[in-house]
Amino acid sequence: MADKRDYYEVLGVDRAAAAEDIKKSYRKVAMQYHPDRNPGDHAAEEKFKEAAEAYAVLSDPNKRTQYDQFGHSMGGRGGFWGGGFSGDFGDMGDVFEDVFEGFFGGGGSRRNSNGAQKGSDLEYKIEMTLEEVLVSKKIDLKIPRLENCTECSGTGAAAGSKKVTCGDCRGSGRIRVAQGFFNMQTTCPRCRGGGSMIEKPCGSCSGAGRVRDTRKLEVKIPAGMEHGSRLKVTGEGEAGQKGGPRGDLYVQVLLKKHDLFERNHEDVHCEWSIPYTAAVLGGVVKVPTLEKECDLNVPAGTVPGRALKVEGAGIPFVRSPERRGDLYIHVQIEVPTKISKREKELLEEIAKERGEKTKSKKGIFS
Questions:
Q1: How far apart are the first and last CA of the chain?
Q2: pLDDT score recorded for residue 186
Q3: Spatial distance between the Cα atoms of 151 and 155, rounded to a whole number of angstroms
Q4: Residue 287 Cα distances to 268, 291, 326, angstroms
Q5: Measured between alpha carbons, how far is 298 from 301 in angstroms, rounded to an integer?
């Protein structure tokens, strides 16, 4: 497992990349290293297989979530593919079909022999501030998605019409296609995987079985969500076809940049200036937090750049929201630009006591 490259690195995307960006990157890499374009090039063939393995994991929301948490070890001793991608593309037909739609005489999405198809997963992005992730909150979403047609109950057929078996696939919904060095099954282009065709389509959905609508949904966002993290809402994706199950909804949290605070996992950091007298003598100063001001004990002799900790003033842990990280105040020294006559006299006395010169001799350019 140690020699396996990170899947995001293989496809050249960052860890917060959207599903469509992952698909585009995989298509580019796969076309570059496809064996048909690099005959006899073993290195290109290995990179092609490596990209196929990476996409198979990152394109599946469940596998991607597990990979983000556990890396290559998630799939067992040999990882997701049992110790390496075998090159057997029999089980990878859906992956290639999804990415290179139309290349193999069909295209479309995953279907079984009776035409049932799971609905597409959806992704919704929301922006939040650091203050907003301190507590869990409920948000109202409006999700445009495909719903089953109420007129035909999702069958796509008008009342009284019947279906006829497809002659190309003989009712299976799949045909076998040879492409380069491997064979694969793909969706029948004539019946689009249904295995049969409708004599008279439904007038409301034109035979599609689904219509576009807007779903209003309330989603609870847990406290402590990190930038780019995703929340899965099972069964709230698009409706399936031909009796297939619904897809899922993934809500991705994007954190806005804060003017003062910077997050590092559950801890928060900021720079704050304190009076030079407090830095020298020590004392208590007011400092900001994500919620309100608090008192900070400043040790005597504090130097610029020192980080002083405010325990429990950071971000809640997602899995244990009763626990919170810490706030680190990176001290800067506030030097006044104007001082009173009395302050000047006192500072000059201090300088004299310490044997420090406070005035320089005047030169010809003074």
A1: 70
A2: 75
A3: 9
A4: 13, 11, 14
A5: 9
Domain extent for 310 = 262-353
Tell which of 62, 87, 112 closes a domain: 87
Looking at the DSSP assignment, which residues form a beta bridge with residue 296? Answer: 285
Instruction: Please give the radius of gyration of the chain, using alpha carbons only, rounded to the nearest integer.
Output: 31
Average pLDDT over residues 331-341: 85
* Number of domains forming the structure of the chain: 2
Q: What six digits make up the tokens of 279?
A: 């830095």
Q: What are phi and psi of 3, to 5 degrees?
A: -90, 0
| 299, part of any domain | yes
Express each pLDDT in 96-125 by its tens digit. 545 554 443 334 444 444 556 788 888 888
Identify the domain boundary among 52, 87, 122.
87
The answer to whether 62 and 94 have CB atoms below 8 angstroms apart is no
Q: Is the pTM of this model over 0.70?
A: no
Torsion of CA 348, 349, 355, 357, to 10 degrees: 10
d(CA 190, CA 185) in angstroms, rounded, equals 14
190-194, long-range: CB < 8 A, 24+ apart? 190/166, 191/115, 191/166, 192/106, 192/108, 192/111, 193/106, 193/108, 193/111, 193/115, 193/117, 194/111, 194/115, 194/166, 194/242
CATH of the domain at 38: 1.10.287.110
What is the identity of the amino acid at 37? Answer: R
Q: What is the dihedral of CA 214, 236, 118, 225, to 10 degrees?
A: 120
Confirm whether 292 is domain-assigned.
yes
Separation CA 307–CA 312 (nearest Å): 15
CA angle 212, 157, 153 (to 5 degrees): 55
